[in-house]
Amino acid sequence: MRFAVLQTLNGLSLSAVLFLISIGFNIIIGLMRIINLSHATLFVLAAHIGVEVLGRTGSFLAAIVAGGLSAALIGVIIERFLIVRMYGRRFEQVLMTMGIMFIVDDITLMIWGGYAVRTPAPAILSGPITILGVIYPLYRFAMIGFGVIAAVLMWLLIDRTKFGAYIRAGADNSEMIQAMGINVRKVFLLSFGLGALLVGLAGVLSSPLYALQPGMSMNFLSLAIVVITIGGIGSLPGVMVGSLFVGLIDSFGKAFFPELSYFTMFVPMVLVLVIRPQGLLGRLGWS
Predict the structure, then answer these.
(1) What was the pLDDT predicted at 170?
(2) Across residues 93-115, what is the average pLDDT?
């Protein structure tokens, strides 16, 4: 029983991080039809910026703000000056954004070095908590709460606001909303910035959980791709379901079959693609 509770909590804390990474990734793909492989590198960059700010100010809140806003700013710059030239050219998008990922990763490595760094949890969330007889880190449990709050806020934004209506309409038919006089370019830019902001927040919030080290961008990019493939492109509920699925599978898979961690992760994705190519909650017709 304790083993199951522990692995479930570990899986849920990872799911919260994956949701923050994948929801922005999914918005960018679903609305803008941009395959942005540089998305996860902003996760690592924001985490390093957060660590730097935390070391200089001692404020975890300042680290969150600095990391999130810096990722959003860099994301907007990437969209405005680079990706805008590649709309409708997916092969070039893949090559360019992959190149951006390698460049940013190397800049991060040059500035902060290749040593593994872990941020201490804020004092208010440090220490253990007992859940169903399991002693568990309070910050990891709080991360689950952050994920739930983020999911609720994103649902309210996308389903209950005019901007969310533009995002949904743009995902279905961007030409139609442009014909209605809506500035599609502005919607695209704000959506890209929102996605970058979320992945930046995820980077700083997860820095007490995972040691920052070279290669993290590709690892989390792979997980985000699995999430949206399983959940479905352009679907907020799909990202929620996919994040939960991947987080729990990763946690229990590594516990039971540590030498087959990639097998337990990618085989379910392959099966979903075979049985339901649009994902569990996605729709056919993405183009």
Answers:
(1) 67
(2) 88
> Cα–chain-centroid distance for residue 270?
21
Burial class from Cβ neighbours inside 10 Å (0-12, 13-18, 19+) for residue 101 reads: buried
Contacts within 8 Å (CB) and 24+ apart, 157-162 = 158/236, 159/236
In a domain, 191, yes or no: yes
Q: What pTM did the predictor assign? A: 0.89
Residue 268: pLDDT above 70?
A: yes
Q: Is residue 253 part of a domain?
A: no
Neighbours of 254 (CB within 10 A): 17
- The predicted structure's pLDDT at residue 115: 78
What's phi and psi for 83, nearest 5 deg?
-70, -30
In a domain, 120, yes or no: yes
Domain extent, residue 136, equals: 2-214
Percent of the chain scoring above 90 in pLDDT? 36
Which letter does DSSP use for residue 24 in this model? H
Name the helix (H) or strand (E) containing 203.
helix 184-206
Of the candidates 81, 87, 90, 77, the residue with the CA atom closest to the CA atom of residue 37: 90
Calpha distance 44→56 (Å, rounded) = 19
Q: What pLDDT was estimated at residue 161?
A: 87
**Does residue 183 belong to any structural domain of this protein?**
yes
Per the model's pLDDT, the better-predicted residue between 187 and 196 turns out to be: 196
Tokens of 182: 């809506």
Q: Domains in the chain: how many in total? A: 1
